[in-house]
Amino acid sequence: MLGIAVIVFREVLEAALIVSVILAATRGVHNRLAMIGGGVAAGCIGSWIVAFFTAQLSNAFAGNGQELLHAGIMFTVVGLLAWHVIWMQSHGREMVHEMKDIGAAVVAGKKPLLALAIVVALAVLREGSEVVLFVQGMMASGAQQDVAVGFVLGLFTGVLIGAFLYAGFVKLSLKHLFSTTNIVLILIAAGMAARGSDKLIQAGFIPSLYDRVWDSSALLPETSVPGQLLSALVGYIAQPNAMQLVFYGVTVTCISALLYMQKKPAVVKV
Amino acid sequence: MKNGVRVYVTVVVAMVFGIVLAGKSFANDAAKVDASAEAVQSVTVTLKNHVFEPSAIEVPADKKIALVVTNSDATPEEFESHDLHREKVIAAGATATINVGRLKPGIYKFAGEYNEKTAHGTITVK
User: Fold this and answer.
1) Shortest alpha-carbon distance between residue A257 and chain B (Å)
2) What is the full DSSP assignment across A13-33?
3) What is the pLDDT of residues B34-93, one digit of tens each?
4) Domain that holds residue A87
5) CB neighbours of residue A126 within 10 Å
6) For strand B95-101 and strand B65-71, is the pairing parallel, antiparallel, or unpaired?
7) What total of structural domains would you count in chain A?
8) For chain B, domain boundaries
């Protein structure tokens, strides 16, 4: 039972962390709960569909279907997060302003909110499909009650840690909240890009350039809870290869470069 | 402010340069892969009753290795190895190929995440 809880917890945690950062980032935006809740629901439904088609997916693209699906999901998330962060840069200030006038509905938040709802759906989908497969397998091999208790326990603990993180973010003042969540979202995007590139390496599409640029797995294993927190939030990788570092660096640089151009429109005009 | 712009341009140019270099070595690597397509050594592993067979694998160092894992159980399994940085879900009755690339000498552990108690093994690279 505990084993089941641990596995479900590990899968749920990453999705829960992303959801909590996004909830914090959209604080005060009209309709956000419906949109993000919808994203979670869509991700759950999608998980069942993906789990159902796992065999077919794996066999697609010369046996690399699963890697390509994951890489595709991750790079989509990178793009959506980049778009959101850049959009926030230009509209965030007005939003903070409007929010200060109590009761002013922030209609402007609608577009990027959809992007974030999709990010949430994809995060839930990626982790959820593995949970569904695992629980199905366990159910099939008996001890159904244990499976159910373990599942609920794992789900609950994962969501609880996400809630703690949210509470921490919410303590920040609105002004700091946006800049902090923006940085976290950029790092989440960079970490996603790094891990997406690893999927392409696994599929044999791109080389790793150089394996194990460093190895901090003894110091802070990715499987430990702090390791997993860092891995989900800033893209910590205990044994990265050079290609992952390139993807990480390029993502951070590109998004911040675009942000910089947004910040200084005068420079762009010249 | 101008200084900031210059720093930024420098960083971006450096990154682009890095990508080009990476792309070049990729092209070289791809050519190598084409030239030695048969040099990939496949190792066949079968999962039955949540146990890998063989569970102790030996492979030579610095040779491209691909694990061909068949799951002959009735439940799905996730092949997982933190040492190798690989994870892949293998449906019941399905076979999956996992490219692990060239390995340095050492011992690499792997496991079936859904049945970790029984499904585990090692790859010894010499």
Assistant:
1) 7
2) HHHHHHHHHHHHHTTT-TTHH
3) 444 557 899 999 999 999 999 999 999 988 899 999 999 988 999 999 888 898 999 888
4) 2-269
5) 23
6) antiparallel
7) 1
8) 2-35, 38-125
φ, ψ for residue A214, nearest 5 deg: -145, 170
Quote ipTM for the complex. 0.74
CB count in 10 Å sphere of residue B109: 13
**Per-residue pLDDT reduced to its tens digit, A158-186:** 999 999 999 988 888 777 877 788 889 99
**What tokens appear for B79 in the block?**
């092949």
Q: What are phi and psi of B117, to 5 degrees?
A: -65, -40
Residue from B85, B99, B116 whose CB has the most chain A CBs within 10 Å, to mutate: B85
Query: CATH assignment of B38-125?
Result: 2.60.40.420
- Chain A contacts of B1, Cβ < 8 Å? 264, 267
**Tokens for A85?**
């962060």
Cα gap A270→A214, rounded to integer Å: 43
Contacts of A193 in chain B (CB under 8 A): none
Torsion angle of alpha carbons A60, A62, A63, A67, nearest 10°? -80
Can you list the alpha helix ranges (DSSP code H) found in chain A? Answer: 2-25, 32-52, 54-63, 65-100, 110-140, 144-170, 174-202, 225-234, 242-263, 265-269
Burial per residue of B48-86, b for 16 or more beta-carbon CB atoms within 10 angstroms, e otherwise: eebebeeeebebeeeebbbbebbbebebbbbbbbbbbbb
